[in-house]
Specification:
alpha/beta, UDP N-Acetylglucosamine Acyltransferase, domain 1, 12-stranded mixed beta sheet, about 40% helix
């Protein structure tokens, strides 16, 4: 072990936390091109300072700060905090972990798992998290849960928040169902879907005496994690975000054997995260009003003026300027007859005379020349210069020339309109009238959708896959399963690795447990049909089935799964007219002899077959044999 690694594991009993610094999205363009998310000023204090202060006050002793971009800037800031002996440095150690190859939140956790820094339960914090929660009781509660439920992987922390509250972000609306012990049974992010109907799995109501449906929650982006969390990310490469992780565990609960719990904060406990401009604005409001006390903005470096205005150090404001609900950084200069409302002006920016700025964000080192207007959700990146009498509305503007540029997007020598790939500028909710109109347009489109767009199926349709074609997603899933199993058999890969691939594909295509069972068995049987029906066919079929025994055992765990298996046999046999009674008898006999399916399951399935069909006639000799054997056994017992 290297000296650095030894240093990281010195404190065996330290309470640990992980902060993933990067957001891996473009919510804060164009500012995020020059300013790391962690150092984005929030009421004139870098966001990361609030997060570290919260963790320190919450009882964390060692934090791993994982970053992929702007690495030098973040390291310099952390070293500066240590040199200045910030309060959190007295009680908490921060280790900056670097990996420039990671491209997602999940990649970061997989890298941390490989490094082996974590030693027990830990706190997982997403970018921009700000809170005043005492974490030690939450860790203790999670530890008690894991003693009762060995599969408890994560506890999600939510805060009670009523509908329409300023702190709630439409993009992060969540609907959750839990049982009486707080175990999450259903979790769906409503703000990221256009679905108009929500379908709850019936089993969550049948299997739990008490189910609570919660929509009055705000995600704090704080999670209490068991040591199994990092290996789960490593084993499931499709887990790219925490929401992916939660969704994957709920979908694969029977397979992975892991569960998720929730904890809802009440009273004066607060939690939130800066994930977009809406939450940036909200947290600015809550910080300057001391809702997150004792975590708060710097009282020393800010001046609190009338009309809800905050100014940083050395800010110069002319007497004729009209300011309302504005936060300004250090060294900002505001000229004569300037009108600024509901906006953020970052440090070292100059606003000349007779300028109007409304519902916008002006980045650092900008120059807005006289008689210009910056309106309705505009975001100016670092170093932008807006020319005299220029009108800018609902735009993202950067100082450097983009690779692809339309002449209409040139606003000046150091001002270029940034057009995103989807032609939809990032959400500056409540800062931009244009965003409200955009969301209204989406809602109108939703309202025009036909009722047939909602997907639903009857119990009969769900129980049989032989009478209707599979939806596109299930076809894609089936194709991937065949590819994985074929490659695994040819290359003699371990079946455990193939199971992981199948589970990942299941998550990617959002198929049910029943569909997984059905298509896995069908794929194995289809593979066997690639061999010619010669003298060696059945020995080759037996060798194929024997190779996949670990997969069969993994998926055929209960009677419901056995019925799925038998339906797959039915589907393959009825879809291939050249398959004889001998093939059907051999497959059923194999599954029965190896205890993959029980006699009860076979007879129950047989009772559902069409008595007039040729397949019923093919199966009948085997079921007759089962019943005769049972009668003979009963006679011997007598």
């Amino acid at each position: 072990m290297s000296n650095k690694s030894k240093e990281l594991v010195q404190k065996e009993n330290a309470v640990q936390a992980i902060i993933v610094v990067d957001t891996f999205d473009d919510e804060f363009l164009p500012l995020s091109n020059d300013i790391p998310h962690a150092l984005l000023p929030l009421v004139n204090k870098p966001i990361i300072d609030y997060t570290l202060e919260f963790l320190s006050l919450g009882g964390i002793e060692e934090t791993f700060l994982f970053c992929c971009t702007h690495i030098d800037a973040i390291k310099q800031h952390i070293n500066k905090c240590v040199e200045n002996a910030e309060e959190w440095t007295q009680t908490m150690k921060v280790n900056v972990v670097v990996s420039e190859s990671c491209r997602s939140f999940g990649d970061c956790l997989r890298d941390l798992d490989a490094k082996g820094y974590l030693r027990g339960d830990f706190v997982l914090v997403e970018p921009g998290t700000i809170s005043n929660i005492n974490l030690l009781p939450l860790l203790e509660k999670h530890n008690k849960i894991t003693k009762i439920d060995k599969g408890a992987a994560m506890t999600l922390i939510f805060q009670e928040s009523g509908l329409g509250h300023i702190s709630r972000c439409p993009k992060e609306e969540v609907l959750m169902a839990t049982n009486s012990s707080g175990r999450v049974l259903f979790h769906k992010k409503l703000g990221t879907t256009r679905e108009r109907k929500i379908e709850f799995p019936l089993e969550i109501f049948l299997e739990n005496s008490t189910v609570s449906l919660r929509h009055n929650l705000k995600d704090t982006h704080i999670s209490i994690c068991s040591p199994a969390v990092l290996p789960l990310f490593s084993d499931n490469f499709d887990f790219q975000t925490r929401d992916d992780f939660v969704r994957g565990l709920l979908m694969n609960e029977e397979i992975l054997g892991m569960t998720v719990y929730s904890n809802v904060l009440k009273g004066g406990q607060f939690g939130g995260a800066v994930t977009n401009w809406r939450t940036y604005q909200t947290l600015s409001h809550e910080l300057k009003n001391n809702y997150v006390y004792p975590v708060q903005p710097s009282q020393k470096h800010n001046s609190f003026l009338k009309n809800d205005v905050i100014a940083g150090q050395n800010a110069t404001i002319s007497k004729s300027a009209k300011l309302n609900n504005v936060i300004m950084g250090d060294n900002v200069k505001i000229g004569e007859n300037v009108d600024i409302s509901n906006s953020f002006i970052f440090s070292n920016t100059k606003v000349e005379d007779n300028v109007t700025i409304s519902l916008s964000i002006v980045g650092p080192n900008c120059l807005v020349k006289e008689k210009s207007k910056i309106l309705a959700g505009t975001v100016l990146g670092k170093g932008v210069q807006i020319e005299k009498e220029c009108f800018v509305e609902d735009a993202l503007v950067q100082s450097t020339r983009p690779d692809e540029l339309d002449s209409r997007d040139v606003l000046g020598k150091h001002a270029f309109r940034l057009v995103l790939d989807d032609n939809e500028p990032e959400d500056v909710v409540d800062l931009a009238l244009a965003r409200k109109l955009s969301r209204l347009h989406i809602d109108q489109n939703l309202g025009e959708e036909s009722e047939d767009d909602g997907f639903s199926e009857s119990e009969d349709e769900r129980s049989s896959y032989t009478h209707s074609p599979a939806p596109d997603d299930t076809k894609l899933f089936f194709t991937e399963v065949i590819d994985s199993l074929t490659r695994g058999f040819e290359d003699k890969l371990q079946c455990d690795n193939l199971i992981l691939e199948i589970n990942s594909s299941r998550y990617a295509y959002n198929v049910t447990v029943k569909e997984v069972n059905f298509f896995v068995i069908k794929a194995i049987l289809i593979m066997s049909l690639r061999q010619p029906m010669g003298p060696q066919y059945f020995s080759q079929l037996q060798r194929l089935l024997q190779y996949f025994v670990p997969i069969l055992k993994n998926y055929l765990r209960n009677e419901s799964a056995m019925l799925d298996c038998l339906q797959a046999v039915e589907d393959v046999a009825t879809s291939n007219e050249n398959l004889t009674e001998k093939w059907v008898m051999f497959v059923l006999q194999y599954f029965y002899d190896k205890d993959h399916v029980t006699e009860d399951a076979i007879l129950k399935w047989y009772s559902t077959l069409d008595k007039k069909s040729n397949f019923h006639a093919q199966v009948k000799p085997f079921t007759d044999w089962l019943q005769e054997a049972e009668e003979a056994s009963s006679s011997e017992d007598e």
